[in-house]
């Protein structure tokens, strides 16, 4: 939930004459988060965008009874997408009214099965007319970007729309792969962490992810068939690549500049191969957006939540600075809450810049955290390094800290039966929640026909945790967990076996203060790294 006044709000006047269905006239006037990104405040306006510029964005519908939804999730109930729609989404008539309003302005709409969002594509000029806004090009210290003014929707749909994501591209999501590694020397030991090492480090159980689906959201150039085959062959993993790994290109072929797309390619290879390293019998579905813009990433989230409900774990190694992403938070937080209710747990990398991942309007480094890792409905994954000979310590590059925008979720606050403090009593979302290997000596991956070693970043740790979750879900019946974070924090706060505490090392190696690891939960590694076999027993 967005809170603390960090996002400007605008008043909405309810006009009921044309409203229909269950929200309509019975709904009170409500504020809508500002769609103007924070970067605008210190940027220079360059002028209106070209009216023919293509724009992809996602509108979130107003949900009913969020208190009941939160209670169901906290209690472990799991809903199908259809049941979620019936309980919390607008009525079919209300939803149809939104779709018709957009189509009438010449926009292409893609409904969601749960009636919670609609993905919209069209010309900038038509978007401006449909939403009652203007799209302007700006420039600041960090480059050129597009941003809207506030939305002024037609009275017939005003109360049905909660917010939008993707109208601006001020908060593009970037890979959290800190080091690309180096080609390995032929016929020599890699010196990096390999799948067999992960099995030992995290005491992976005997089951291997049968019947489980791991979804991965990414962008850029997709891995090739020979990439995964090479990894599987090199490390003798029981993976049938042809049957277990599939790709979906959302929005068409990649449109990022070649250099960026090639960087993202290695990220995508890393994500898939780490998931298979931990859960080699799982099915992996790789959803790849055409660009790293928030609009298409939002569309990717919509697709996975609504079309891949059987994926009970989702790994995302991309993110951005929280303070520039406020405009997209309502849309994505609603989607992540829906995902939890359907038994789908999202994992996000906490970042690779220690505490230096954000800048203020003038380019100065500021203490902040990564988004969407700070969402209250996801699990944020930090990083460790191997100290000699085998013990783990907090990785200096791992992200962590306190949210500037998000309230503290209930699972991070003290609960009856706790024997250890959960998080500080600061009233805000703290991250990370857990950690895994991300730093020295890096991991080994296979890409472009060769083995690379020393690959680092919380991009390593995140798919590892998604793989661990698949093993956990398989062992517990394969139905998913709507209260996964709640259970995870219960294990940590009661000192139950399953999470190995990391109490040495620190994050933050730049100009802003860092955070040390400590006994119990901390800003460097959360509750620590998985002891997967014990975690299954404590669940």
Provide a descriptive summary of the structure in words.
Helix 8 (258-278) packs parallel to helix 11, helix 9 (294-307) packs parallel to helix 10 and helix 11 (458-475) crosses helix 13 (532-538). The protein is an alpha+beta fold. Helices cover 27% and strands 25% of the residues. Strands 12, 13, 14, 15, 17, 21, 22 and 25 form an 8-stranded mixed sheet that branches. It has 2 domains: 9-165, no CATH class; 175-538, Rossmann fold (3-Layer(aba) Sandwich). It contains 13 helices and 31 strands.
User: And the CATH topology of the largest domain?
Assistant: Rossmann fold
Number of discrete domains = 2
Q: Tell me the fraction of residues in β-strands, as a range.
A: 25-35%
**Main sheet, how many strands, which sense, barrel?**
8 strands, mixed
Brief summary of the model shown:
The chain has 539 residues and is an alpha+beta fold. It contains 13 helices and 31 strands.
Provide the fold topology.
Layout: E1 9-10, E2 32-33, E3 44-48, E4 54-61, H1 66-74, H2 81-88, H3 92-103, E5 108-111, E6 117-123, H4 124-131, E7 135-140, E8 143-148, E9 161-165, E10 174-175, E11 182-183, H5 195-201, E12 213-219, H6 225-234, H7 241-244, E13 245-250, H8 258-278, E14 283-289, H9 294-307, E15 311-316, E16 318-321, H10 326-341, E17 345-349, E18 358-359, E19 365-366, E20 370-371, E21 379-386, E22 392-394, E23 401-407, E24 428-431, E25 434-437, E26 443-447, E27 450-455, H11 458-475, H12 484-493, E28 499-500, E29 506-507, E30 515-516, E31 529-530, H13 532-538
Parallel strand pairs: 12-14, 12-15, 13-14, 15-17, 17-21, 21-25
Antiparallel strand pairs: 1-2, 3-7, 4-6, 4-9, 5-6, 7-8, 10-16, 11-27, 16-20, 18-19, 21-22, 23-24, 26-27, 28-31, 29-30
Helix pairs in contact: 6-8, 8-11, 9-10, 11-13
């Amino acid at each position: 939930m967005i809170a603390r006044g960090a996002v400007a709000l605008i008043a909405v006047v309810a006009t009921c004459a044309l409203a229909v269905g269950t929200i309509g006239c019975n709904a009170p006037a409500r504020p809508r988060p500002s769609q103007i990104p924070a970067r605008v405040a210190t940027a220079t306006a360059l002028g209106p965008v070209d009216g023919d510029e293509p724009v992809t964005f996602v509108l979130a519908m107003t949900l009913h009874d969020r208190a009941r939804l939160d209670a169901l999730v906290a209690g472990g109930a799991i809903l199908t997408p259809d049941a979620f729609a019936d309980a919390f989404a607008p009525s079919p008539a209300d939803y149809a009214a939104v779709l018709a309003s957009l189509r009438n302005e010449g926009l292409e709409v893609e409904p969601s099965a749960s009636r919670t969002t609609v993905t919209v594509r069209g010309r900038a000029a038509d978007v401006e007319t449909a939403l009652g806004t203007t799209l302007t090009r700006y420039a600041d210290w960090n480059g050129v970007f597009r941003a809207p003014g506030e939305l002024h929707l037609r009275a017939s749909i005003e109360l049905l729309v909660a917010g939008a994501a993707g109208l601006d591209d001020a908060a593009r999501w970037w890979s959290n792969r800190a080091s690309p590694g180096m080609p390995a020397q032929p016929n020599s030991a890699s010196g990096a962490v390999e799948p067999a090492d992960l099995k030992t480090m995290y005491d992976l159980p005997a089951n291997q992810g049968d019947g489980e689906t791991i979804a991965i959201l990414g962008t850029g150039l997709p891995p090739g068939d020979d990439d995964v085959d090479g990894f599987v062959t090199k490390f003798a993993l029981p993976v049938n690549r042809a049957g277990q790994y599939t790709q979906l290109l959302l929005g068409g072929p990649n449109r990022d500049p070649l250099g960026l797309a090639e960087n993202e390619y290695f990220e995508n290879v890393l994500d898939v191969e780490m998931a298979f390293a931990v859960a080699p019998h799982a099915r992996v579905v790789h959803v790849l957006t055409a660009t790293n813009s928030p609009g298409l990433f939002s569309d990717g989230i919509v697709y996975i939540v609504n079309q891949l409900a059987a994926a009970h774990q989702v790994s995302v190694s991309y993110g951005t600075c929280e303070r520039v992403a406020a405009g997209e938070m309502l849309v994505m937080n609603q989607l992540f809450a829906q995902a939890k209710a359907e038994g789908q747990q999202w994992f996000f990398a906490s970042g690779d810049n220690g505490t230096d991942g954000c800048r203020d309007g003038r380019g100065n480094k500021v203490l902040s955290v990564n988004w969407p890792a700070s969402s209250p409905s996801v699990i944020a994954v930090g990083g460790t390094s191997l100290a000699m000979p085998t013990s783990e310590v907090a990785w200096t590059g791992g992200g962590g800290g306190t949210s500037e925008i998000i309230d503290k979720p209930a699972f991070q606050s003290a609960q009856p039966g706790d024997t250890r403090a959960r998080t500080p009593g600061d009233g805000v979302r703290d991250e990370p929640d857990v950690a895994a290997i991300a730093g020295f000596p890096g991991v080994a991956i296979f890409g472009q026909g060769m083995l690379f070693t020393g690959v680092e970043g919380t991009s390593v740790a995140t798919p590892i945790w998604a793989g661990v979750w698949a093993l956990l879900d398989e062992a517990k019946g394969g139905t998913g967990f709507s209260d996964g974070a709640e259970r995870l924090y219960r294990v940590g706060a009661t000192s139950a076996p399953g999470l190995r505490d990391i109490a040495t090392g620190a994050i933050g190696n730049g100009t802003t203060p860092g955070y040390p690891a400590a006994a119990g939960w901390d800003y460097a590694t959360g509750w620590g790294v998985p002891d997967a076999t014990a975690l299954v027993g404590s669940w």
